[in-house]
Amino acid sequence: MTKVIVVGNGMVGYKFCEKLRSRSTDIKIVVYGEEPRPAYDRVHLSSYFSGSSADDLLMAPISWYADNNIELHVGELVTEIERDKKEIRTHTGRRDTYDYLVLATGSSAFVPNVEGVERNGVFVYRTIEDLNQIASYAKKVKRGAVMGGGLLGLEAAKALLDLGLETHVVEFAPRLMPRQIDDVGSEILSGKLAQLGIKIHTGKNTKRIAGNGKLEGLTFTDDTHLDIEILVISAGIRPRDELAKASNLEVHPRGGILVNSFLKTTDQSIYAIGEAASCNNMIYGLVAPGYDMADSVARQITGDFSKQFTGFDMSTKLKLIGVDVASFGDPFGDTQPSIPIAFKDHRKGTYKRINISEDGKYLLGGILIGDAAQYNLLHQMVINKMPLPANPETLILGDGSKSADSADGVKGLPDTAQLCSCENVSKGEVIRQIRECEGKTLGDIKKATKACTGCGGCTPLVNDVIKLTLESMGHKVKKTVCEHFDYSRQELFDIIKVKGIKTYEDLLDGHGKGDGCEICKPAVASLMASIWNEPILEQDTIQDTNDRYLANIQRGGTYSVVPRIAGGEITPSKLIAIGRIAQKYNLYTKITGGQRIDMFGARVEQLPEIWEELIAEGFESGHAYGKALRTIKSCVGSTWCRYGVQDSVSFAIFIEERYKGLRAPHKLKGAVSGCIRECAEAQSKDFGVIATEKGWNLYVCGNGGARPQHAKLLVSDIDTETCIKYIDRFLMFYIKTADPLTRTATWLNKMEGGLDYLFDVVVNDSLGIGEELEEDMKKLIANYHCEWKKVVDDPALRSKFRHFVNSEEPDPTLEFVDMRGQRSPIDWNKK
């Protein structure tokens, strides 16, 4: 049996194992990684500071290696290669032999030789261990900086921002991301980052890291000084080629293991891939070329020599601290004669530049800042030498047409066009999966080809190919709610509103078929609530459990009770009332991240009794159970905080009182921060407001949860009245147009035209529906009612709150255990 040893278990080393095992089950694979855990996703490392755990970042669980018959050794550093014996030795003294050796040792952080670099408080940004050290040290400080304004540096800046630090970025070059974007792009990007509270210092050469034992600041060669308490160095990478050097393999003078187009080193049995390899005098610092190298070597070891690595397109698209940044082809137009076409909008923070050939026939490259929606198509036009339209500027400015059938679009791409660079999946392969293998969904294509499973940037393009191919085969591609309604949610919204339909039965009889299902019933109930804002229990037969009982069912079969605490502000008397009621009904209580107090463990028949007591104390439903407005979080603002510039608490309470009970396609959360320190985390909400000296900045379409996304700045420095007007329009436009169970972030991601289009609708009133949206909101606000009070005051509704239809007896299966002085449901598994 052929034996392959892989040195290094990073992303590229993992991908090599995956590729090799998919091609052969007869090869013995042994992996040595010096880190204490299996391969993890370094591309999304900053998400570690915004909720992701180390396990969340794993490329695959450790069980994957055993399941695929791969022998994995973590925490074991290979220190020596005896090439004549084809043997390696590790720091533990272990020896192992190979037929082929693959060096995937990656890179380390480049640390410049600056005086004081050894001081406490100076870190690099490379591994999870680095991040743990940064997080621990950050608890003791308030001001931090990142040395390096490239891709990794800006990711590190996001990490410091997430840790709540005043954040600075120091870059030696005269602009940010000097290898990817030009001066104008850097200016726009700097402005966007400044809005987030990051201070940018370009053209700065650090002379000394000042301090007495621990870091106190940076001194630059122009004799200026920056006071900081923590420094993260992210000034580039250095290939890990020390093992190759010690084994007398040839390395490049500037670093990197020299390889040929087959990724072979000067020893024919040893390959090098990823950031450790120097091919064509270049180190490829992105993950996609590393994956391509891994695929090439896996092919060769299994006897397929058809694929050489001759270079890689280094075009890239990413979201830096919530800001779209992309460069493709020749971004600067300096590799051949070209003509630039550029568009800049300081107000929206967008910059788009394309470089076309002198004869006007072809696109050569470009830069996109703030809005990279056109990246996939523009990138494909470059690599496939697709002809330009008669007016090339329409590629970035648009031509006023929304046609999707233009030959300049997805249809015009050749079948050889590479849609997914991470997994090297072509348009032709996606089409083949649909036509020959009956793939019909994005999930089908992901499973068959692994497209969209890497960085995810190709997902819109792959979706477009799926849609067009299915349509070409005669399949009807339409987002209907379900088989019982041949309409989308948006169409049903209009039908219900225009025809005044108020019951599910009337809608089904007039516009549907069959008896309905668990998909359309809750969707229609949500639509009725969003349009009419009438008691949700009037639709109780088509609701799920949470809406039917106006409470979230919890583990063990009990329910939670969550009263509204607008803006997080509560009087001592109300606090005492909650304590008294929770104690009376023996409810588990917890303060939540949404600045509310949740009470758990109520039996269904107890709910009306608890609500009645809460209402008597001045509380009302917090709608924690519904697809509705949940909370408006706030900091203490200018009332108490010495940094606050506006009264965030009062504004948060006003907003929450205004929109309470508002039903939507999905839950809604908001926040108001009193200054740019952002203690209320407004940029992680569906809509967030941040105070400025001149008024308010309004952010939209963010969310936390499993797939966190920063909200985007819609408009700056507006007064309170204007802010409310735009929130009215934004929320009603979302309610009218989003698909069922779609958060605002996903809604915006799928919206044609993205943030620019949303800005035009909400701010510029481009559709002429601004007043209509505001009027619709007024009607919903005027029709607000506390759903709990409806039940408390209505004996017929109240009688529905029982566990057994024919008995007043409570659920006899409920069991609890003591946990830190409160009761909690017994573990079902133990039970």
TL;DR of this structure?
This protein is an alpha/beta fold. 31% of the residues lie in helices and 21% in strands. The chain is globular and about 90 Å long.
The total strand number stands at 37
What is the chains' assembly state? single chain
The helix fraction, in percent, is: 25-40%
What structural category do the secondary elements indicate? alpha/beta
What is the overall silhouette?
A: globular
Radius of gyration: 29 Å
Q: What is the rounded distance between the termini?
A: 49 Å
Percent range for β-strand residues: 15-25%
Query: Could you give the order of strands across the largest sheet?
Result: 3-2-1-7-19
Main β-sheet: number of strands, strand sense, barrel status? 5 strands, parallel
Mean pLDDT: 89
Spans of at least 5 consecutive residues with low confidence: 400-408
By DSSP (H or I, 4+ residues per run), the number of helices equals 27
